[in-house]
Amino acid sequence: MKPINIGILGLGTxxxxxxxxxxxxxxxxxxxxxxQIRLFMAADKRQDLDTAEMFLPETVLTDxxxxxxxxxxxxxxxxxxxxxxxxxxxxxxAIENGKHVVTANKKLLAEYGNEIFxxxxxxxxxxxxxxxxxxxxxIIKVLREGLSxxxxxxxxxxxxxxSNFILSEMREKxxxxxxxxxxxxxxxxxxxxxxxxxxxxxAGHKITIMASLAFGIPLSFNNCYLxxxxxxxxxxxxxxxxxxxxxxxxxxxxxxxxxxxxxxHPTLIPxxxxxxxxxxxxxAVWVHADTVGSTLHYGAGAGELATASAVVADIVDLSRxxxxxxxxxxxxxxxxxxxxxNLPILPMDEITSSYYLRVGAxxxxxxxxxxxxxxxxxxxxxxALIQKGVWKREDSAEIVILTHSTREKHIKNAICAIEKLxxxxxxxxxxxxxxxxxx
Length: 439
Known about the structure:
Layout: E1 4-9, H1 13-24, H2 26-33, E2 37-43, E3 60-62, H3 65-69, E4 76-79, H4 86-96, E5 100-103, H5 106-122, E6 127-128, H6 139-146, E7 152-158, H7 161-173, H8 177-186, H9 195-198, H10 201-215, E8 225-226, H11 234-242, E9 245-256, E10 259-270, E11 282-289, E12 293-300, H12 304-321, E13 352-362, H13 367-377, E14 382-387, E15 396-403, E16 406-407, H14 408-419, E17 429-433
Parallel strand pairs: 1-2, 1-4, 2-3, 4-5, 5-6, 8-10, 10-17
Antiparallel strand pairs: 7-9, 7-11, 9-10, 11-12, 13-15, 13-16, 13-17, 14-15
Helix pairs in contact: 1-12, 4-5, 5-10, 7-8, 13-14
C-alpha cells in the first residue's frame, strides 16, 4: 500500500518532537496503520538545525512553508507554527490543495475554526487538532467520540500548566505572585512575556474548543470571559485553604436552560475534589455527562513529546481514514454541520456561582451587620464567615465570607453597596467558587 507522506510546518519544540516520534516509532506506527507513514518534507526558517535525530536522509527540508502545502506528493500537512496569521493562510492553502491537516494551534481554531472547518468540508478533507487542547491528554477524542452517547452537562479544566504551577507554588510556599512568576520563567514554564498564559487567553482558546465539541455550538472565543491570576494575593489562597478550598485557574463551560456558560477565571474548589489536587504544570479536564456521570482526564498538558504524541495520534487516525467516504467521518465539531446550534453564550452577570469575598473594614460594632444586611437584600445567603486579624495601626480587620449560589449580578450589586460603607477601607476581593455537584 502506498506510503502516507507527511509535511511538517515548523520545527520548534512540538515540530521537532513530532519528527522524532515519527522516526523513532516508525515500525510501531506502521503496524497500527497498515501502511508506512513517511516524513516526506519539513519547513522551517532556520537552516542550521541538527536534523540527524529528526529526519531520514531522504526527507526534503525547505525554508518555504508554502512549498510544503502545495507539493503534489504531500498527503497530510502538520501545522506547528502557531499564531493566527501565516498559519491560517497555510492551512487554508493546504485545504485548497486537497491536503488533510493536523494542527496544535488552539488560538487559530478558537478564533477562525468555523471558517477553516467549513473550507475543509467543502473540499472533503479533515482538520485534526487533538494537540490543541491539554497536550498529551486525548480529550478531543473523548469529547468527539468516547462520549458520543451522552448529553454533556459541563466541563471544568485546569488547562494551562504555567498558571497551575504558579498557584501551586503560591499555596505551598506562601510566596507572592511576582516572585513565583519569576521562578516559573527561570524554570522555563513561563515565557518572557507571560500574558497569554497568566491572563487566561490560552485557557480561553482551549475551553472554547471544548465547548463547541460538548454542546454542538459554533466556536465563539470572542464571547469567552477571561480573567487571569496576576492580581491574586497569596493571603486569599491561605484563607481559602483554612476554609477547605484550593484556588485554581479553571476553564468552565456549562449547559443551562438560558444558554451556555463560557468562562476562564480563578476558582475556589473544595479541597476534597480530585481537580483541586492537580498541582504543578499538570493539566486535568473534568467532564460531567448524563449517562456516564463524571470522568476526569489527567496528564501532561504541554511539552515536546506529550504534545507530539497527540499530533502523531491524529496522523495515525487520518492515515486510517484517508481513503474512506467523507460521509462516514467523525464531524470536526462532533455534531453534523447542519445540526450545529447557535446557542447564546451567557454574559457573566447571568452566570450562577458561589463567591468568596474579602472585606477590609474598620473594627467597630455594626459593620458586620451592615454587610450581612446588604447581602440579604440581594438574596444572597452566607455559607461561612471568618474574621481575620485586627491591625492596631489602622484599627481595621478583614472579614472573609463564603456565599451560597447566586447570580453574579447580585453579588456585584452587593459588592458595590458594601464598598460604599464608610467603615470599608479598600475594594472588596471577589473570587468565584464552584462545588461541582454531580447528583
